[in-house]
Amino acid sequence: MSDNKSIIIVGAGIFGVTAALELQQRGHKVKLFDPGPLPHPDASSTDISKVLRMDYGKDELYMELMEEAFAGWDQWNEELGETVFHQTGYLMLSRDPMVPGGLEHDSFELLQKRGQPAERLNKGSLEERFPAWNAKNYPDGYFNPRGGWAPSGRVVQLLIKECEKAGVELHEGAAFQHLLENSSKVSGIRTTNGEDHKADIVIAAAGAWTPALLPHLQDLMWTVGQPVIHFKPDNHQDYQPPQFPVWAADVGRTGWYGFPAKDDGILKLANHGPGWSVDPFGERRVPADQEAKFRDFFAHTFPGLVDAPKVADRLCLYCDTWDGNFYIDFDPQREGLMLSTGGSGHGFKFAPMLGKLAADVVEGKQNKYSSRFAWRSRGDISTEEARFSDL
Ligand SMILES: Cc1cc2nc3c(=O)[nH]c(=O)nc-3n(C[C@H](O)[C@H](O)[C@H](O)COP(=O)(O)OP(=O)(O)OC[C@H]3O[C@@H](n4cnc5c(N)ncnc54)[C@H](O)[C@@H]3O)c2cc1C
Q1: How far is the CA of 374 from the centre of ligand 1 (A)?
Q2: 159-214, pLDDT tens digit by residue?
Q3: What separation in Å is there between the alpha carbon of 49 and the centre of ligand 1?
Q4: What distance in angstroms lies between residue 45's CA and the mean position of ligand 1's atoms?
Q5: pTM for the model
Q6: What per-residue string of b and e applies to 218-245 under the rule 16 or more CB within 10 Å gives b?
Q7: Per-residue pLDDT reduced to its tens digit, 253-270
Q8: For the chain, domain boundaries
Q9: Which terminal Cβ of the chain has fewer Cβ within 10 Å, N or C?
């Protein structure tokens, strides 16, 4: 009797698409549902760029997971027919000398322990190698050559093609409305166009929409809006690698991080902060006072960009979990329901591993990461400390 399952996945962002591809390739029958168009314009995964880095303070599990994910990104650069991992390196700078307990210090220490070729920088070497920076404000930090960015929306688009090639049944334009349940067993979904679809397992991978679609999760995860602004400096070549890689500016304390200008001249700046609680189905607007804050940051750190024209902004949504870790596991209260969600602002970079993690759960296989993403109730002390792994 084959162990292959029929599986419904709700949501075709990076968590859903990678699970669909891996499960279909392992022989399961997968149906993927999303209101579309795909990649969905409001999805968190749909953006011009996401940071790929392994620098996670003293959290060795995420660093190790990212080491494996980087090997996957290298492979995708070979297999997907275009460059999806732009390895510019990752610049992690501090506004004060790096000290134990600080994100920069602890990341650098762990990188060295794991034999990663990160190079310590000081004001002089920063000025010389990365001249766009106002070096006097960043006396310490390091450059990790193993890091960069991915065109996230394009990656989702390419993986959806891989899903269709693999035989995933794509239901673009069909949105999940509610679960089909008899007593506590989930047997499928009803879509907003009134159709019922049955399956052995339903995987909820609807990102920031998940707690709204499954309200019983609202104690564990919620939707938070974060600001992103695109600028178009005249001299965008000055803000391109190697002199301008992906960077983080004392991010543990300021939230500022950003990207090199793309060849079309667009330079993205983002801030990871407390954000705003938003309704995922509601209007998304970057508060009017944000542009001034973004320009104040430029004045402090990249004076050459302070007057760069703004060309777009976006309120992108996190599905924030209470401890900052993903949920990739079955719901213990609802047999047949599984989650792969809770990216908490840092999930995209693990794309080459996310599908494997979800498929292992479906097949009841343990791996060295399972316990971090396993179902846990709020307040489980063991995961409480992990909160600093954001971004
Ligand atoms: C501002 C910002 C910056 C970020 N920067 C980074 C970064 O630099 N590096 C990094 O690693 N991560 C980053 N992240 C996090 C990353 O983007 C997310 O963790 C990841 O993209 C989440 O993917 P997802 O598949 O869970 O959700 P999404 O990509 O949002 O996909 C959810 C899907 O569910 C679908 N859906 C919604 N409702 C329904 C329904 N009723 N039925 C069926 N489908 C439905 C949507 O259409 C969508 O396609 C950032 C996030 C934000 C918001």
Answers
A1: 20
A2: 999 999 999 999 999 999 999 998 779 999 999 999 999 999 999 999 999 999 99
A3: 13
A4: 4
A5: 0.97
A6: eebbbbbbbbbbbbbbeebeebbeeebb
A7: 999 999 999 999 999 999
A8: 88-146+222-321
A9: N
